[in-house]
Amino acid sequence: MENTPKDLSEILKEATKEVHTQAENVEFMRNFQKGQVTREGFKLVMASLYHIYAALEEEIESNKQNPVYAPLYFPEELHRKAALEQDMAFWYGPHWQETIPYTPATQHYVRRLHEVGHTHPELLVAHTYTRYLGDLSGGQVLKKIAQKSLALPGSGEGLAFFTFPNIDNPTKFKQLYRARMNTLEMTPEVKHRVTEEAKTAFLLNIELFEELQGLLIQDHKGQIPSQMEWLRQRSGSLVQDTTPEEIPRGKPRISTSSSQAPLLRWVLTLSFLMATVAVGIYAM
Ligand code: HEM
């Protein structure tokens, strides 16, 4: 196989087939596809995406004239940071910059993006391929699922990330992007490292989804372990919800409201018990 020269776009598609299947099948993504996405889960993943795209696009800007990346520079068509800023304001309110969570797996992903941008810019293509072609492929389906499951308005508010207003035909754009990838001059050694980096990029996404799923389970049990205090400190609670109340539709799922404030539930239950005992004592 090493003797057959192939286009980078083909190599990457083939090399990431297995990790792509793995990514589709992590619990968080499986649930998402079944429409079992909660507001808290959605907010978490969107906040992570904000940090990831902010880092990715910062590194893209630093390397936009570097020949190892320049042919792939499509800020108007692809860049997501501004869209995610709108989404953050919708989901977390005007003070989103101080309140959005920044999970360890997100930090890990962001660290790698900066490392690549600063030290190995020839690998940046692996990350832009993994994210942008992925967004252009599955994004529209995920948008519809989110819209339905979270009962969001048809106007697309809160879902700017999924909309590419400057791309009329995603299939054609993906073709153009692949053609541009294939113009990058690369030695076989660099091609190999780019391929490995693309697999790493998928694994960073998988690690993130697994982490978020774990956080959601912990929060539903009302248990945020001490090593996750950073989350409470940053956002008050995992599920601090500043968006207007909406009536959930769609398939039955774990109710967000029942899980919204485990601490509050505890305090209320305790207060009720104390009041009952006090009335009992008074009545004696
Ligand atoms: C719910 C999970 C997912 C579904 C249902 C899904 C679905 C798809 C579909 C239908 C395609 C088009 C395949 C084709 O044109 O031949 C695709 C392509 C792609 N997806 Fe996903 N995907 C998912 C998750 C992910 C994740 C998590 C990533 C990475 C972060 C990703 C990255 C990609 C990439 C890079 C491509 C382009 C492949 C290529 O043409 O070279 N996908 N996906």
TrEMBL record:
It is an enzyme of class 1 (oxidoreductase). It is found in: Endoplasmic reticulum membrane. The chain crosses the membrane at residues 263-283. InterPro entries: Haem_Oase, Haem_Oase-like, Haem_Oase-like_multi-hlx, Haem_oxygenase_CS. Pfam families: Heme_oxygenase (PF01126). It catalyses: heme b + 3 reduced [NADPH--hemoprotein reductase] + 3 O2 = biliverdin IXalpha + CO + Fe(2+) + 3 oxidized [NADPH--hemoprotein reductase] + 3 H2O + H(+). It comes from the Eukaryota. Keywords: Endoplasmic reticulum, Heme, Iron, Membrane, Metal-binding, Oxidoreductase, Transmembrane, Transmembrane helix. One of its GO terms (molecular function) is heme binding. GO terms for cellular component: endoplasmic reticulum membrane. Its EC number is 1.14.14.18. It is a single-pass type IV membrane protein. GO terms for biological process: heme catabolic process; heme oxidation; response to oxidative stress. CDD domains: HemeO-like. Homodimer and higher order homooligomer. Oligomerization is crucial for its stability and function in the endoplasmic reticulum. Interacts with FLVCR2; this interaction is potentiated in the presence of heme. Belongs to the heme oxygenase family. Catalyzes the oxidative cleavage of heme at the alpha-methene bridge carbon, released as carbon monoxide (CO), to generate biliverdin IXalpha, while releasing the central heme iron chelate as ferrous iron. This is Heme oxygenase 1.
